[in-house]
């Protein structure tokens, strides 16, 4: 049952991600982290997600997508800080 809830939550995030503002086509020369708010509630909580673009991202060359999912009682910002993936992307 728990795996069904996770699947439904991830499916909803994918569907509703199209309802958020578009990222700039040509970001500036510095790394940026964008926070997107989605009007999606799951178990009574409003969900958000963060997108980090490394400093050398130009929009012309595809980059791998890394998805980091935090556990209960964590926020996306806390997970970004503790996981170290942002620093790894900028390296």
Describe this structure in words.
With 91 residues, this protein is α+β, with helices and mostly antiparallel strands. It has one domain. Helix content is 32%, strand content 22%. It has three helices and two strands, in the order αββαα. A two-stranded antiparallel ribbon has the order 1-2. The mean pLDDT is 73.
Main attributes?
two-stranded antiparallel sheet; globular
Helix content: 25-40%
Overall geometry: globular
Order of secondary-structure elements: HEEHH
Tell me the number of helical segments per DSSP (H or I, 4 or more residues long).
3
Q: Over the alpha carbons, how many angstroms does the gyration radius reach?
A: 14 Å
Q: Kindly state the number of beta strands.
A: 2
* Poorly predicted runs of 5 or more residues: none
Oligomeric description of these chains: single chain
Q: Strand portion, in percent?
A: 15-25%
Please, what is the average pLDDT?
A: 73
- What structural category arises from helix and sheet content? alpha+beta
Biggest β-sheet description? 2 strands, antiparallel
- Counted up, domains total 1
Tell me the distance between the termini.
39 Å
- In spatial order, strands of the major sheet run 1-2
């Amino acid at each position: 049952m728990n795996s069904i809830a996770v699947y439904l939550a991830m499916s909803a995030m994918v569907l509703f991600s199209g309802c958020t503002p578009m990222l700039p086509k040509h970001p500036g020369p510095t790394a940026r982290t964008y926070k997107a708010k989605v009007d999606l509630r799951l178990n009574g909580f409003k969900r958000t997600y963060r997108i980090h673009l490394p400093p050398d991202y130009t929009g012309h060359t595809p980059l791998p997508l890394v998805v980091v999912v935090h556990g209960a009682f964590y926020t996306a910002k806390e997970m970004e800080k503790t996981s170290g993936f942002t620093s790894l992307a900028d390296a």
